[in-house]
Amino acid sequence: MIQYTIRRLILAIPVLLGILIVTFALARMIPGEPCKAMLGEKATPEVCERFNVRYGFDKPITTQFGIYLRDVLSGDFGQSIRFSRPVTIILIERLPLTLELGTIALLIAISIGIPAGILSAVKRNSFWDVFTMIGANIGVSMPVYWLGLMLQFAFAILLKDTFFQLPPSGRLAPGLVAIPFYEVWGWEFAKETFGYHFLEFFSNFYILNSLITGDWKLVGDAIKHMIMPAMALSTIPLAIIARMTRSSMLEVMKQDYIRTARSKGLKQNKVIFKHAFRNALLPVVTIIGLQVGTIFAGAVLTESIFGLAGVGRILFEAITARDYPIIQAFTVVIAAGYVFINLIVDLSYVFIDPRIRLE
Amino acid sequence: MPPVSLSNEKQKDYRSNSLWRLTLRRILRQRNAVLGLIILSILVFIAIFANVIAPYAPEQVLIGLEEGIKKRQDPCIHLFGCPKDQPQHLMGIDGNVRDQFSRVVHGSRISLMIGFTTIGFAIIVGTILGSISGFFGGWVDNLIMRILDVLMAFPSLLLAITIVSVLGPGLQNALLAIAIVTIPVYARVVRGSVLSIKEMPYVAASRALGGNSFHILINRVLPNAIPPLIVTGTLGIGTAILDAAALSFLGLGAQPPMPEWGTMLGSERNQVFTAPHLVFYPGIAIMLTVLSFNLLGDGLRDAIDPRLGQSQN
Fold it and tell me: A171 vs B293, which has greater pLDDT?
């Protein structure tokens, strides 16, 4: 197992290198000089010369890539042009929100999608099955951002002053502040160090942060703000997971061992969950891994609608401002995360299906 | 001597005819596919006759044409009690005082065009790459597939966003970006088919008869790789339309005043609380279009390859 894990990790290196090459190449393919593209009107020849020296654009392309590679590996993604701050710091501030949102969305998708799919397969061609599959078909065809806007209209306008009212945007209600756990606990340490940024990263998961500091009001408020965006973000994955679970279950239910299990008098629940579902899980887990990509891409769309200052929102802002270091860094981080998640999915096969031997 | 066999021509004709008819019959048995086909036919009809159906030109500003017209006016439908003396606006008036219904109708042309051109482009390039990869194998195969692996390592919409942000916003660049990120899918499908088909006896026969590689690839291998391509392509059109609308929504694709559904949504997104109809209809239009291709694609898959079972993936 360990050997296999190591081998898979090594095999992921060329892909990660490829991702870096692609993003590096893309940033270099901007028509015209990079300086003019990034600075726009302000780009006089003298400014450009300084700019080129500062960002290394005067060196040969291979050297530039070498420098880029070295920087990325040491966690340095350069300076944001728009914010004049290190991109890595911006990532530390913004990534937790996106991860929080994505995790909730994925949890919603899994916890509704899988049971819906199972029920659909067990009660094949019933009203429930038809209903779920129509829902799933509509779910995959819906633009997330449109759904987001419609949810905003429904929950903030139509259901206003009812129990179901939800805040239309933002991360916390005005006036509420999430105090980082290290400040609550009175930890003292030097700022701008690695350890500080590490803790800061975790404190930016508001729900997690307020859970461990025991601020229940904040937990509730943070979750309330997450419901709508997470619902919008989870529709496509939910629909895909439900469909996959259904077809995988149908496939397994046809097998001889299910009939055997039934004929030896096992209860329906036991047959479904112990015999059928376990064996139907593999393709479902694979598709869940792939949905992480949908969620990351969807975050770009949902975050800007719901006024959430996450990675997706800033990526959108960076695109409008042509802030390439940010675009480049975020693309790399998200793609690397996507590769990593799917690597974990691959490794999890052994636990799901012991017949799979990792050789 | 009387002829002992039918002419080649006739035999081929008979076979392909029955194959297509069989497939069509199987498609028509799928409720999903029929529904998809119906929605799609209506959409194509609307797109073709957009000029006739839409009461106004999509970019026509109605100030001065109608008295007392206001921007973001609510829909006025005579059937639902809107006074008969007021001009009818089925989907209301948009932020630039244009008839929303006319814009949504004309949007169908753009979206269908987007779907077909991107996927067409991706299929052509993907087929070339996939068939080279599968047919010749060796280091060529390795090189092509590793490059495509890297492209597939990105979440596709995200890569498309990055590509457009480099190329610059615009419908053409958005289409190119979406085509590029979908190429790997088609290349893989074609490669897979080619790998299995090239071991078939009739390919060996063709080779024994002296056919060169190019001839075998074009005339023997590729025609048999078409069915999975049609299925993947139909499903891909839906995704392409969805992604293109997303790019336009972000301001990276079609630019105003083009009546593209995503662009329309993007420019009125802040009005969802005051003029929800401007956000509602373009979204419904996108959804129905994508839904029709998805239903049709699912049905085609079940019809063409029944072994795949129902609606996988």
Answer: B293
pTM of the model: 0.86
Q: How many CB atoms lie within 10 A of CB A175?
A: 5
Across the interface, whether the CB atoms of B265 and A316 are under 8 A apart is answered no
Amino acid A357: pLDDT: 66
A300/B149 Cβ within 8 A: no
Mean pLDDT of chain A: 86
ipTM confidence: 0.86
Distance CA B301, CA A238 (A): 22
Best A11, A141, A255, A343 member to test B by mutation, with max B CBs in 10 Å, is: A141
**Is residue A79 helix, strand or coil?**
strand
Chain A residues within an 8 Å CB radius of B147: 18
Residue A297 and residue B155: Cβ atoms within 8 Å? yes
Nearest Cα to Cα of residue A238 among A151, A110, A137, A142: A110
What b/e string do you get for A263-276 counting C-beta neighbours within 10 Å, with b at 16 or more?
eeeeeeeebbeebb
Give B312's pLDDT tier (boundaries 50, 70, 90).
very low
